[in-house]
Amino acid sequence: MFEGVLIRAYGGFYYVQKGAEIWQCTLRGKFRLAKGAAALVGDRVRVTPVRGNTGRIDEVLPRKTELFRPPVANIDQAVIVFAVQDPEPNLALLDRFLVLAEHAGVAPVVCLNKADLLSGRRDHEWLRLYRKIGYPTVITSTQNNEGIDDLRQLLAGKTSVLAGPSGVGKSSLLNAVQPGLQLKTGEISYKLRRGKHTTRHVELLPLTNGGFVADTPGFSSLDLPDMEREELGYCFPEFAACAAECKFKGCLHCHEPHCAVKTAVAQGLINQTRYQHYLMFLEEVLQQERRY
């Protein structure tokens, strides 16, 4: 039995990297019968060789992190890619993914792609907002190679996932970061005004400067993870500075009196749109609780 990394899974087979070798594996029966995802791309697994370079996954080692959208394990950071335009950035969707990353303990990076489409200024007001909150940001363009070295440096030596809506240029960015990958790319559907899916499954790609990166299918909607109502506020880092001053323990920063977070919003210290997204997400979390 040997240990390796599950780098892709499709067609009923699981492909495990062991050094420079790729092994085609099946899952042990007990995993196939288990509820939920028995094995995720990014998992460290133990494999029993069968014949040639085929084997059977007999053990999935404990995960340090897990995302369910995209489904990937043991990720150090999530590079959340949105475009300047084509498609237009959906900040509610961005905040959803930031909540997923924060809740999973995965470090987020906000990437503004297609910077060649910027007119006049070098970033957007919304990008400055996330930078002020404390999120690392990078501005990129595959048309003029802007920010590609910065992104390459961010990915070096880490296991990362590139995530974001279809059409924002995730696969093109990876092709620019590591020429030779030749990942399939697509254009925007001008009828639907959103990207066309080019990546069909999650795959962990080794990088020549160390580490792995997962190219993932795009999404246009995103459910929140299962969480307690009190947990949501901790997924908004800008709340931390004042939440301790709320009068009531376990304050949800919604209807409670003497809430320091609401006061900070009124004073312009916390962005109003981010706070409105928090309230929208809180209602979803409360609805989840009522369903269960």
From TrEMBL:
<dbReference type="Pfam" id="PF16745">
    <property type="entry name" value="RsgA_N"/>
</dbReference>
<comment type="function">
    <text>One of several proteins that assist in the late maturation steps of the functional core of the 30S ribosomal subunit. Helps release RbfA from mature subunits. May play a role in the assembly of ribosomal proteins into the subunit. Circularly permuted GTPase that catalyzes slow GTP hydrolysis, GTPase activity is stimulated by the 30S ribosomal subunit.</text>
</comment>
<dbReference type="InterPro" id="IPR010914">
    <property type="entry name" value="RsgA_GTPase_dom"/>
</dbReference>
<feature type="domain" description="EngC GTPase">
    <location>
        <begin position="73"/>
        <end position="220"/>
    </location>
</feature>
<feature type="binding site">
    <location>
        <begin position="164"/>
        <end position="172"/>
    </location>
    <ligand>
        <name>GTP</name>
    </ligand>
</feature>
<keyword id="KW-0342">GTP-binding</keyword>
<dbReference type="GO" id="GO:0005525">
    <property type="term" value="F:GTP binding"/>
</dbReference>
<dbReference type="GO" id="GO:0042274">
    <property type="term" value="P:ribosomal small subunit biogenesis"/>
</dbReference>
<keyword id="KW-0479">Metal-binding</keyword>
<dbReference type="InterPro" id="IPR031944">
    <property type="entry name" value="RsgA_N"/>
</dbReference>
<keyword id="KW-0862">Zinc</keyword>
<keyword id="KW-0699">rRNA-binding</keyword>
<keyword id="KW-0694">RNA-binding</keyword>
<comment type="similarity">
    <text>Belongs to the TRAFAC class YlqF/YawG GTPase family. RsgA subfamily.</text>
</comment>
<dbReference type="InterPro" id="IPR012340">
    <property type="entry name" value="NA-bd_OB-fold"/>
</dbReference>
<keyword id="KW-0378">Hydrolase</keyword>
<comment type="subunit">
    <text>Monomer. Associates with 30S ribosomal subunit, binds 16S rRNA.</text>
</comment>
<keyword id="KW-0690">Ribosome biogenesis</keyword>
<dbReference type="GO" id="GO:0005737">
    <property type="term" value="C:cytoplasm"/>
</dbReference>
<dbReference type="GO" id="GO:0046872">
    <property type="term" value="F:metal ion binding"/>
</dbReference>
<feature type="binding site">
    <location>
        <begin position="113"/>
        <end position="116"/>
    </location>
    <ligand>
        <name>GTP</name>
    </ligand>
</feature>
<dbReference type="Pfam" id="PF03193">
    <property type="entry name" value="RsgA_GTPase"/>
</dbReference>
<feature type="binding site">
    <location>
        <position position="251"/>
    </location>
    <ligand>
        <name>Zn(2+)</name>
    </ligand>
</feature>
<feature type="binding site">
    <location>
        <position position="246"/>
    </location>
    <ligand>
        <name>Zn(2+)</name>
    </ligand>
</feature>
<feature type="binding site">
    <location>
        <position position="259"/>
    </location>
    <ligand>
        <name>Zn(2+)</name>
    </ligand>
</feature>
<feature type="binding site">
    <location>
        <position position="253"/>
    </location>
    <ligand>
        <name>Zn(2+)</name>
    </ligand>
</feature>
<feature type="domain" description="CP-type G">
    <location>
        <begin position="64"/>
        <end position="222"/>
    </location>
</feature>
<dbReference type="GO" id="GO:0019843">
    <property type="term" value="F:rRNA binding"/>
</dbReference>
<protein>
    <recommendedName>
        <fullName>Small ribosomal subunit biogenesis GTPase RsgA</fullName>
        <ecNumber>3.6.1.-</ecNumber>
    </recommendedName>
</protein>
<keyword id="KW-0963">Cytoplasm</keyword>
<dbReference type="InterPro" id="IPR027417">
    <property type="entry name" value="P-loop_NTPase"/>
</dbReference>
<dbReference type="InterPro" id="IPR030378">
    <property type="entry name" value="G_CP_dom"/>
</dbReference>
<keyword id="KW-0547">Nucleotide-binding</keyword>
<dbReference type="InterPro" id="IPR004881">
    <property type="entry name" value="Ribosome_biogen_GTPase_RsgA"/>
</dbReference>
<dbReference type="GO" id="GO:0003924">
    <property type="term" value="F:GTPase activity"/>
</dbReference>
